Every structure is written in structure tokens, then in C-alpha cells.
């Protein structure tokens, strides 16, 4: 046996922390992983999902060879074929489809299974642009939040998460970092030790709320009203920063007028369920116990009024001039700070014409109702749409269409892979090369392969580049290696990337962007120019008005398209589970033990009204479907009328064969075409006998 050596790798999953991992390898076998102790965000530890990464890599669910479906669609019977046969079949079918229906009959469907520049970004651009395939609007996660943020701030990155160490008040708003960004949470905990107070605004008593000095247990989806009520108090009591408002914002007087006349604390208390005293206290703490930072999450945006909620909350730091201070301001995402050469990676120049677009939240509708042309060929990678997309009964109905040719490139036999015509084996992060940015810190990182590919698995880019060549595309970019693409991504003369070369990253693994300050407070160290049309923070936005929104922040209630709140009186929230990452890791024994069972938290009042006791199985249902969940009855966790179910179990492992996305709506959010997972009306009943788990 040879010695154990450690390779510098990067956690590729869709999480703000993007950890620096050290992989221990012996004789080509992965023994384990640990967090890189030198990385200032990773700090030598990994979360409970990835710290046994070898269990994912060597999972019994791994797809190791190409397969072709033999039984009926959805039956799950496949036979092994060679790569050549698989690629020949795909190319022949695509050529046929394109000749008969045009390239828009091909739909790529992907998200962020890996967030690598090579195996996500280059894959999402090059071939599909060249082909003129239907464009996929990648809206399932962040676009509503980004659009809301953008109206107020312009799409510019927020504060460095490491700057929260200097905060005295931290408001975590619609985010659960104790589960969804544990390394961000570590910074917050350290700030608390140094005297910061942590306030969590969430309709559920999350793990993060359990760590808080104050949990503001808000009525779901009323956060705009709360933010406007806080502004009322700030202006009324003279706690606003008038010089900052005059110099760096647009429309503050109109906003002041609106909040003073329309959002008195009494009205806001009625809407939000937060008492007048608490609203006043929160506003005063925020303005006076400084620096004050807001850590804003994506969960809040996944409502029909989500974009406007984010836009409204994002106005708050400007009112008190919080952007001027290290430890003040707001963080939704750091991604806009990374100045990589993304045009070189994605190649938008290859696109000719203007192919139609499909919103990824409405995959079922697209597969079942689009015509001229219908979607005839679907290519899925980095994503598990059968289980993660809303309204999954419609999605599955679409995937079962006999005339649809579906290819799924996957690491695992997911719910989606089992519905494919051709399944291709994908390498994991331990088996390929890639470059990473992050949305929750400011480090660029290189992932080096630690072990050879398992079975016949191949990286996304290798397969898409070969498909491109076999389709007859002769451009040089389809002969680029992963290393070529990484070098192209780094080829800019932006000062933030000075000295951050491929060779540097090979040696060191990671490098922090060379920003003017560290920790970086963009508007303290920068020049207070914002990426809005006016260059200022737009409290009043003409752009929003042109797009059909109220030009000022406002409160609009959430509304499920089923409409009738009497038939379905409970609103189900289904945010991130602690031990799963969307559906990733949800197939593993260790993480399943952590989550125990598909569960639903509900208030004792709602439970009693239906004869449900703690530990009962319940059927949750609405017009879209039904699922079976174990009841957790707790007044501490939820308010009446709200239920909370951590997501996402695989359909395969869910009683009755469906996870919570059988209930969620494919209606779009108010902005950015975003998802609305958390605006989901349901009814519940006690369930004495449980339908079997289909394996
Ligand atoms: N363990 C784990 N980590 C993850 C993930 C995972 O699945 N598991 N997913 C990753 C991904 S893809 C993402 S996008 C991020 C998401 O991570 P977060 O940004 O934390 O988002 P969510 O977990 O969806 O929701 C966060 C909180 O928003 C609350 N919420 C819902 N509606 C409202 C509302 O109207 N108002 C307020 N104030 N709060 C509301 C929910 O109760 C929840 O506690 O996490 C990433 N990290
Ligand atoms: N009810 C409910 N539903 C939700 C959410 C919610 O909060 N509630 N959250 C939503 C959010 S925020 C998001 S981002 C989406 C996420 O939805 P997805 O992007 O589908 O996320 P995962 O479930 O992690 O599935 C990613 C898949 O990519 C595969 N994969 C990983 N790396 C590679 C690779 O290198 N190559 C290939 N070919 N495959 C790879 C993994 O094996 C995995 O099956 O889910 C959404 N769904
Ligand atoms: Mo996400």
C-alpha cells in the first residue's frame, strides 16, 4: 500500500459556504475528507452532509455505466450499453428532432448540482447557444431575490460575510444558516461572543432562531410590512441618516411619506403578528446598536410576493446609512464580486437568433402543453427535476410522455434518472477538475481531481463537448479541456484577480479576491456608486415602475393560485433540511437517520382541530397532490395556520411515492420568474395506515 496523501478539493454543492476540502487518498481510493484549516471561512470543518463524502462517492446508488431504458417509461428497467452506443443514439435522435421540429424542440434542463465554472457554467452556455435550443430560465432558486435586490441596489455584491465579525446587531432574515450555511453561522456565533446580538426573523423556530438573542416569530410572507413599519419608526423618531439619504439614494422623501402615512406600527402589528412594542424596539436596536448588518436569505423570496419583500428589506440599510460601516450593510450574495471572464466561459456570441425560453419552475407545463414545437428531447444534468421542481405530479406526467426522448447525466439513480431513456454516468467532484467562486464568501478555488473516475463515469463538459463535436460543430471551443476553460475564466486584468493564476491556485488551492479592504465592505472601501440606473440606491425606482411594479416598496399579501384559503387553510413552508442539500445526500443512510422521516411541524390548534397528535402520520393534500408526513406538534415552532416540512426526500423514499413537491405550486413569484415553494396552501388529515414506500 502506498502512503495516504491529501488533495485540495472544493465542495461543489449549491451552498453559500463553498468549502475548501482536503481529500485523503490512498491507492486511488478516497478514504475521507476534512475541511481545510487554512481557509478562513471553512476553518477546518465540514458540515454534516459532506464530512463523509466517501459515502456519496461510493454509494450503492452511483450510476457507473451508460444505460438504455428497456421496460416501459418509469418502470425503472435499464440495460447497460457502451458510451459509443449511447452517444450515437443521442446524436441520431437529436438530428432527427432538429430536422423535423427545429432546434427549439431540444430543451436542456440543469441547475447547480455542481457549481463549477467548467461543469456548470460552460455546460450551460456553449452547446445550447450553438444549437439554438430552447433557453432554460434558471429561476428555481435565486432570481426573484436577485430581481428585488437589483431594483434597490443594482446587481452588486453585498458585504463580505467575514465583516459580520464587526457587527453589533445582526439580523438574519429569512435564512437558516445554522443549516444552510454553517460557516456563515460560525462567524455570527463568534460575533455574538464579541457582544453582537443576533435577531432572527422567521415564521419557524429554526436552528438559527434557537441560537438567537431574539426570535421575531413573524407571520409568514408579511416581511415587507414589517420592514415598512420599521422605516416608519426610523423616520418618525429621527433615527434616519439624512446626509446619507440625500447623497446616495433616490426618492427617500417619497418613501418617508409612504411609510409615515400607510405603515404605522399598529397596522403593521396586525399584519405581521409582531407587537407594536417589538416593532419599536427592533427599529431602535437596528438604528442605534451599530454597526448593524442584515443577512438576507433566499427562503423568503420563494413566495408569490417574494421579490417585493427582498426589494423592501434591502432598502433598510440605506435609511440608517449602515453601508458606511465595517460590520454594517446587508448580504444576500457575494457572487457579483467575482470578475471572471464569463463570456469566454459561456460563449453567448455563439447564439444566433432568439430561441424561446422555458421557465424551469414550469417544466411540467412545458412538457405537457408547449407546441410549435413541443419539447421532443430533454437533456438533464446537474439537477433532479422530478423531485425538486414544484408541482411534481405534472413534471412526472410530462417525463412519462412516450414521445419524449430524455437523457439524464447523473451521479446517482435519482427519481429523474429512473424516468430517462438514456442514463449517462457522471463523475463526482473527487474525479474531475474545476474552478469555483462562491455566493457566501470571496475566495476563488481550484478543485483538483483526487481519484480516477469510478466505472465509466465522465464529467459534464467532456460529454457535452463530445456531443457538440459529434453534432458537427467544429469551433475550437468544443475542443477546450477543463484546464483551458479555467484559464479562460481567469483571463481578465481586473485588479481583484491580480496574481490569481491557474498555477497559483494549483499550489494554494484558494485565493481571496484582492479587494481594496479585507474584510471587504464594498461601499466603505469602494466609492458608493451603485449599479442602478441612477448610480444611487433607488428607494424610488423608475425602472420598477416601467416593469409594472409600484415604484416604492410596498406590502402585497402572498396568494397561492388555488385561491381558496378556506378549503386549504394551512400554508406549508418546505425549506432546506439540515442533513440534505435539496435532494443531494437524501439517499444516504447517515443523513436519512439525521432527518428521521418526512416530517411536518404544525401548531397544536391546527392539530387538535383535526384530531392529530404528536407522532401521528398525516396526509397533507391539495388540488395538486398528496404526501404523507409524520406530525410534529409544537406551538414553539410555528404559528397557527402555518406548517413547516424540511425538504427534500426522494420520491423513492417517501411513503406514497411523493415528496412535498407534489403539493407545491408552479406559479411564479412577482419578480424574476422565481419559484414560490413557500406559498402553498394545504389541508391535513390524520392517517391511520400508511401507503408503502415503493423501492
Ligand atoms: N442543509 C442544507 N443547506 C443548504 C440547502 C439544503 O437543502 N440543505 N440548500 C442550499 C440552497 S440551494 C439554497 S438556495 C440555500 C437556501 O438557504 P436559505 O437562504 O436559508 O433558504 P431556505 O432554507 O429555503 O429558507 C430559510 C428560511 O426562510 C424562512 N421563510 C420562508 N418564508 C418566509 C417568509 O415569508 N418570511 C421570512 N422571514 N422567512 C421565511 C423559512 O422558514 C426558513 O427557515 O441553502 C443552501 N444550503
Ligand atoms: N419544496 C422545495 N423544493 C425545492 C426547494 C425548497 O426549498 N423547497 N429548493 C429549491 C432550490 S433553492 C434549488 S437550488 C433546487 C435545487 O435542485 P437541484 O439543482 O436539482 O439540486 P439537488 O437536489 O441537489 O440535485 C442536483 C443533482 O445533480 C447531480 N450532480 C451533482 N454533481 C453533478 C455533476 O457534476 N454532473 C452531473 N451530471 N450531475 C451532478 C446530483 O447527483 C443531484 O442529483 O431545488 C428547489 N426545490
Ligand atoms: Mo437554491
Characterise this structure.
- The chain is an alpha/beta fold.
- The chain has 24 helices and 27 strands.
- Strands 5-4-17-16-15-6 form a six-stranded mixed sheet, with helices on one face. Strands 22-26-23-25-24-27 form a six-stranded mixed barrel.
- A hairpin with an 8-residue loop joins strand 4 and strand 5.
- The model has no long low-confidence stretch (mean pLDDT about 95).
- Bound molecules: ligand MGD (2 copies) and molybdenum atom (MO).
How would the blueprint of this fold be written?
Elements: E1 5-10, E2 20-26, E3 29-35, H1 53-57, E4 67-69, E5 78-80, H2 83-101, E6 106-110, H3 117-131, E7 135-137, H4 143-153, E8 169-173, H5 177-180, H6 182-193, E9 197-201, H7 207-210, E10 214-216, H8 223-236, H9 242-248, E11 249-250, H10 252-262, H11 265-272, H12 276-288, E12 292-296, H13 306-319, E13 329-331, H14 342-346, E14 357-359, H15 363-369, E15 377-381, H16 385-388, H17 392-399, E16 405-410, E17 422-425, E18 434-436, E19 443-447, H18 460-470, H19 482-490, H20 502-508, E20 510-512, H21 522-525, E21 537-538, H22 542-546, E22 570-573, H23 589-595, E23 599-602, H24 604-608, E24 617-622, E25 625-633, E26 642-644, E27 681-687
Parallel strand pairs: 6-15, 7-14, 8-9, 8-12, 9-10, 11-21, 12-13, 15-16, 16-17, 22-26, 23-25
Antiparallel strand pairs: 1-2, 2-3, 4-5, 4-17, 18-19, 19-20, 22-27, 23-26, 24-25, 24-27
Bound molecules: ligand MGD (2 copies) and molybdenum atom (MO).
Amino acid at each position: 500500500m502506498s502512503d495516504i496523501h491529501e488533495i485540495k478539493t472544493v465542495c461543489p454543492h449549491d451552498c453559500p459556504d463553498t468549502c475548501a476540502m482536503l481529500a485523503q487518498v490512498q491507492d486511488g481510493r478516497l478514504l475521507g475528507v476534512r475541511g481545510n484549516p487554512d481557509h478562513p471561512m471553512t476553518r477546518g470543518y465540514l458540515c454534516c452532509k459532506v464530512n463523509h463524502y466517501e459515502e456519496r462517492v461510493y454509494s450503492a446508488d452511483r450510476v457507473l455505466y451508460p444505460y438504455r431504458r428497456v421496460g416501459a417509461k418509469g418502470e425503472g428497467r435499464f440495460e447497460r450499453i457502451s458510451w459509443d452506443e449511447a452517444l450515437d443514439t443521442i446524436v441520431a435522435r437529436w438530428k432527427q428532432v432538429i430536422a423535423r421540429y427545429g432546434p427549439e424542440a431540444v430543451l436542456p434542463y440543469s441547475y447547480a448540482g455542481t457549481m463549477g465554472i467548467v461543469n456548470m457554467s460552460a455546460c450551460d452556455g456553449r452547446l445550447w447557444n450553438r444549437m439554438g435550443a430552447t433557453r432554460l430560465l434558471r429561476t428555481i432558486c435565486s432570481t426573484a431575490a436577485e430581481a428585488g435586490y437589483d431594483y434597490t441596489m443594482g446587481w452588486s455584491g453585498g458585504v463580505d460575510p467575514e465583516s459580520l465579525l464587526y457587527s453589533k446587531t445582526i439580523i438574519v432574515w429569512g435564512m437558516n444558516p445554522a443549516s444552510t450555511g454553517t460557516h456563515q453561522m460560525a462567524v455570527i456565533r463568534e460575533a455574538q461572543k464579541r457582544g453582537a446580538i443576533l435577531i432572527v426573523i422567521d415564521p419557524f423556530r429554526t436552528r438559527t432562531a434557537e441560537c438567537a438573542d431574539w426570535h421575531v416569530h413573524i407571520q409568514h410572507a408579511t416581511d415587507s410590512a414589517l420592514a415598512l413599519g420599521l422605516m416608519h419608526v426610523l423616520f418618525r423618531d429621527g433615527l434616519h441618516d439624512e446626509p446619507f439619504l440625500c447623497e446616495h439614494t433616490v426618492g427617500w422623501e417619497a418613501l418617508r411619506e409612504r411609510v409615515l402615512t400607510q405603515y404605522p406600527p399598529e397596522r403593521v402589528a396586525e399584519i405581521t403578528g409582531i407587537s407594536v412594542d417589538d416593532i419599536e424596539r427592533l427599529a431602535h436596536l437596528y438604528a442605534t446598536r451599530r454597526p448593524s448588518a442584515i443577512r438576507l436569505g433566499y427562503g423568503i423570496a420563494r413566495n408569490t410576493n417574494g421579490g417585493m419583500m427582498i426589494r423592501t428589506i434591502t432598502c433598510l440599510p440605506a435609511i440608517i446609512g449602515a453601508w458606511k460601516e465595517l460590520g454594517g450593510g446587508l448580504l444576500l450574495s457575494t457572487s457579483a464580486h467575482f470578475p471572471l471572464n464569463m463570456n469566454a466561459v459561456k460563449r453567448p456570441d455563439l447564439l444566433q437568433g432568439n430561441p424561446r425560453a422555458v421557465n424551469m419552475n414550469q417544466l411540467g407545463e412545458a412538457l405537457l402543453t408547449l407546441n410549435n414545437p413541443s419539447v421532443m428531447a430533454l437533456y438533464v444534468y446537474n439537477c433532479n427535476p422530478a423531485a425538486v421542481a414544484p408541482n411534481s405530479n405534472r413534471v412526472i406526467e410530462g417525463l412519462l410522455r412516450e414521445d419524449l426522448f430524455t437523457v439524464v447525466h447523473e451521479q446517482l439513480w435519482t427519481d429523474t434518472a429512473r424516468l430517462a431513456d438514456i442514463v449517462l454516468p457522471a463523475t463526482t467532484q473527487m474525479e474531475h477538475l474545476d474552478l469555483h467562486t462562491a455566493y457566501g464568501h470571496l475566495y476563488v478555488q481550484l478543485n483538483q481531481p483526487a481519484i480516477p473516475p469510478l466505472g465509466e463515469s465522465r464529467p459534464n463538459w467532456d460529454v457535452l463537448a463530445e456531443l457538440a463535436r459529434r453534432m458537427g460543430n467544429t469551433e475550437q471551443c468544443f475542443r477546450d479541456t477543463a484546464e483551458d476553460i479555467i484559464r479562460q475564466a481567469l483571463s481578465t486584468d481586473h485588479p481583484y484577480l491580480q496574481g490569481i493564476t491557474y498555477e497559483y491556485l494549483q499550489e494554494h488551492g484558494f485565493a481571496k479576491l484582492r479587494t481594496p479592504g479585507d474584510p471587504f465592505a464594498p461601499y466603505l472601501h469602494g466609492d458608493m456608486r451603485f449599479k442602478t440606473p441612477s448610480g444611487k440606491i433607488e428607494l424610488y425606482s423608475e425602472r420598477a415602475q416601467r416593469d409594472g411594479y409600484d415604484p416604492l416598496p410596498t406590502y402585497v399579501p402572498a396568494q397561492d393560485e388555488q385561491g381558496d384559503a378556506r378549503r386549504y387553510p394551512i400554508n406549508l413552508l418546505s425549506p432546506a433540511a439540515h442533513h440534505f442539500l435539496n435532494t443531494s445526500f437524501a439517499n444516504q443512510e447517515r443523513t436519512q437517520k439525521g432527518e428521521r422521516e418526512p416530517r411536518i411541524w404544525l401548531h397544536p390548534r391546527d392539530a387538535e382541530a383535526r384530531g392529530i397528535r404528536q407522532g401521528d402520520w398525516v396526509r397533507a393534500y391539495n388540488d395538486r397532490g398528496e404526501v404523507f408526513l409524520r406530525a410534529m406538534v409544537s406551538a414553539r415552532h410555528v404559528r397557527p395556520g402555518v406548517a413547516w416540512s424540511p425538504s427534500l426526500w426522494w420520491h423513492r423514499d417517501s411513503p406514497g411515492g411523493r415528496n412535498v413537491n407534489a403539493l407545491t405550486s408552479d406559479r411564479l413569484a412577482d419578480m424574476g420568474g422565481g419559484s414560490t415553494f413557500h406559498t402553498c396552501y394545504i389541508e391535513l388529515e390524520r392517517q391511520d395506515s400508511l401507503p408503502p414506500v415503493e423501492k
